[in-house]
Automatic annotation (TrEMBL):
It is found in: Plastid, Chloroplast. It comes from Salix udensis. Essential for thiamine biosynthesis. Bifunctional enzyme that catalyzes the phosphorylation of hydroxymethylpyrimidine phosphate (HMP-P) to HMP-PP and condenses 4-methyl-5-(beta-hydroxyethyl)thiazole monophosphate (THZ-P) and 2-methyl-4-amino-5-hydroxymethyl pyrimidine pyrophosphate (HMP-PP) to form thiamine monophosphate (TMP). GO terms for molecular function: ATP binding; hydroxymethylpyrimidine kinase activity; metal ion binding; phosphomethylpyrimidine kinase activity; thiamine-phosphate diphosphorylase activity. It comes from the Eukaryota. Belongs to the thiamine-phosphate synthase family. It catalyses: 2-(2-carboxy-4-methylthiazol-5-yl)ethyl phosphate + 4-amino-2-methyl-5-(diphosphooxymethyl)pyrimidine + 2 H(+) = thiamine phosphate + CO2 + diphosphate; 4-methyl-5-(2-phosphooxyethyl)-thiazole + 4-amino-2-methyl-5-(diphosphooxymethyl)pyrimidine + H(+) = thiamine phosphate + diphosphate; 2-[(2R,5Z)-2-carboxy-4-methylthiazol-5(2H)-ylidene]ethyl phosphate + 4-amino-2-methyl-5-(diphosphooxymethyl)pyrimidine + 2 H(+) = thiamine phosphate + CO2 + diphosphate; 4-amino-5-hydroxymethyl-2-methylpyrimidine + ATP = 4-amino-2-methyl-5-(phosphooxymethyl)pyrimidine + ADP + H(+). InterPro entries: Aldolase_TIM, HMP/HMP-P_kinase_dom, PM/HMP-P_kinase-1, Ribokinase-like, ThiamineP_synth_sf, ThiamineP_synth_TenI, TMP_synthase. This is Thiamine-phosphate pyrophosphorylase. GO terms for cellular component: chloroplast. Residues 44-287 form the Pyridoxamine kinase/Phosphomethylpyrimidine kinase domain.
Length: 530
């Protein structure tokens, strides 16, 4: 592949391409480049899915989006009434117009209605290199209408997927791509992800939104080495038309901004979940599946531009609590430690700084917040409501002798996350009444990190979890040797573990976080199978 005098081989990884391409952009422009996604997809007249969803998603994520229209559909919230495929040579002309002129970072493909259109796209990608290709293998609309027939499957499998940096099928699409195999469980989704990966894409995300009988929406991400089970709460709403297009274009947008693949996927899932939650009651059209509001602005009575992401209990899965003493001992800054923990799989971060000056605490909070935000990971502040407010962190964690949850809620407002430490069922009940979002329960085991903290053991943890109306994270003396036991118990409401020394009183935060993440994944999936 050649473009602008730079040869970009398909065998280069996304990261290698990023380095080569960013130097090229600087050479060409001598200035800042604008993240740019090209959406190659069908038009949806109802504007919930397709090109329209991609444009709105990229706008919401601060990324420029150009468009190549492959088909024009007449559709609404009832279904697809008619499809008019754009002639292949005209698709080719659109691709040439965009790619020969503009610096596209990532191509996202959606509806590709014929083998000819797939081939035209692949030819264009051979002529004009881009950093990444995100393939949403659209086959059937959410209303059940066929958008790409079975004749295209072998071209997808043999020619398109090997070029993809990520492919994002739902269960039906994954099954169709794999010759109709039955996909009924999360274990089946893992198998499908592995089989699809063998067809050549660098990463696979099998979306489990249609999986029956699960409370959470579970997606399986596989990068050829590791599986990640990505959970988000299932939002009760009919306004889900266009979620697949939106997820894929948000992944493309985050990649265009420079995020690593897993981060892009996590951010995209959170974005879709936030938009669905925000839009769950809006009414557009008379059909059974409505569109949602990508820009979070249309709800009647709501005129605020910014709305924080809703709290997601699955964020408690691997909860990293900082300690500047430990990080100093190992010679690293707080920001570096937090960045490594997130890279290793931490799903939420709490700054717990007992002995720092307020001004330093605030500066650290702001720097860590920038890292957390860029990865879609919430940042909480321990004890200090003032620091949380001043830094605009995502919330606070308070104990039984800190600010009561009700007061914290009044000070912070409805959108911030509040966690409360509880050792007993009564405290858990109070936390719920006070408007907390989750409880931290422990110390489960003894620890040197917090002095004079009686342990409650696994039995105490089980008792509180079973009675709690809020999601729970376990804390206290948890490390690689016992995290599996804690998560493997499979008690109700227990969503994860919070750890300090097992991550930060170690030489290699990244490796320790990865190890703990893998152990938790294994324990939680085996407890679900019991
Ligand atoms: C997730 C989580 N759970 C419990 C605690 C302990 O909070 P607290 O009881 O207020 O004790 P300190 O951490 O402030 O010493 C926590 N920090 N995080
Ligand atoms: C803050 C806190 N609250 C209860 S135990 C504890 C300390 C947990 O630290 P570690 O994970 O190092 O045992
Ligand atoms: Mg406290």
């Amino acid at each position: 592949m050649a473009c602008g005098g730079v040869i970009l081989s398909n065998s280069l990884s996304f990261y290698q391409k990023r380095i080569v391409m960013s130097s090229r952009v600087q050479e060409k422009n001598g200035g800042a480049s604008i993240p740019h996604v090209l959406s190659v997809a069908g038009s949806d007249s109802g504007a919930g899915a397709g090109i329209q969803a991609d444009l709105k998603t990229c706008a919401a994520r601060g990324v420029y989006c150009s468009t190549v229209i492959t088909a024009v559909t007449a559709q609404n919230t009832v279904g697809v009434q008619s499809v008019h495929a754009v002639p292949e040579d005209f698709v080719a002309q659109q691709l040439k117009s965009v790619l020969s002129d503009m610096q596209v970072d990532v191509v996202k493909s959606g509806m590709l209605p014929s083998v000819g259109v797939v081939k035209v796209l692949l030819q264009s990608l051979a002529e004009f290199s881009v950093r990444a290709l995100v393939v949403d293998p659209v086959m059937v609309s959410t209303s059940g209408d066929v958008l790409a027939g079975p004749s295209i499957l072998s071209t997808f499998r043999e020619e398109l997927l090997p070029m993809a940096d990520i492919v994002t099928p739902n269960i039906k699409e994954a099954s169709a791509l794999l010759g109709g195999i039955r996909l009924e469980t999360v274990a089946d989704m893992r198998t499908a992800a592995e089989l699809l990966h063998a067809l050549g894409p660098r990463n696979v995300l099998v979306k489990g939104g249609d999986l029956p009988g699960s409370l959470d929406a579970v997606d399986i991400f596989f990068n050829g080495e590791h599986f990640y089970e990505l959970r988000s709460s299932r939002i009760k709403t009919h306004n889900t038309h266009g979620t697949g297009c939106t997820l894929a274009s948000c992944i493309a947008a985050e990649l265009a901004k420079g995020s690593p693949m897993l981060t892009a996927v996590r951010v995209a899932k959170r974005y879709v979940e936030t938009a669905l939650e925000y839009s769950k009651d809006i009414l557009i059209g008379n059909g059974i599946q409505g569109p949602f509001d990508h820009l979070l602005r249309l709800k009647s009575g709501s005129h605020s531009f910014h709305r924080k992401d809703a709290f997601n209990p699955s964020d408690l899965f691997l909860y990293a609590v900082t300690d500047s003493g430990m990080n100093k001992k190992w010679g690293r800054s707080m920001v570096d430690a937090v960045a490594e923990a997130i890279q290793g799989g931490a799903t939420i971060v709490q700054l717990r700084e007992k002995d720092v000056e307020t001004r330093d605490f605030l500066e650290t909070a702001k720097s860590c917040l920038a890292v957390c935000r860029s990865h879609g990971v919430p940042l909480l502040i321990n004890d200090r409501i003032d620091v949380a407010l001043a830094s605009d962190a995502d919330g606070v964690h308070v104990g039984q002798s800190d600010m009561p949850a009700t007061v914290a809620r009044t000070l912070l407002g409805p959108e911030k996350i509040i966690g409360v430490s509880c050792k007993t069922v009564e405290q858990a009940q109070q936390a719920w009444i006070g408007g907390a979002d989750y409880i931290g329960c422990g110390g489960v085991y003894s620890t040197n990190t917090k002095a004079n903290n009686p342990t409650i053991g696994l039995d105490g943890l089980k008792t509180v979890c079973s009675a709690s109306k809020l999601p729970v994270v376990a804390i206290g003396g948890i490390n690689a040797s016992n995290a599996g036991t804690v998560m493997g118990m499979g008690v109700p409401n227990l969503k994860g573990v919070a750890v300090v020394s097992a991550l930060f009183d170690r030489e290699n935060v990244l490796a320790e976080t990865k190890k703990l993440h893998a152990l938790l994944m294994e324990a939680s999936s085996s407890s679900k199978m019991q």
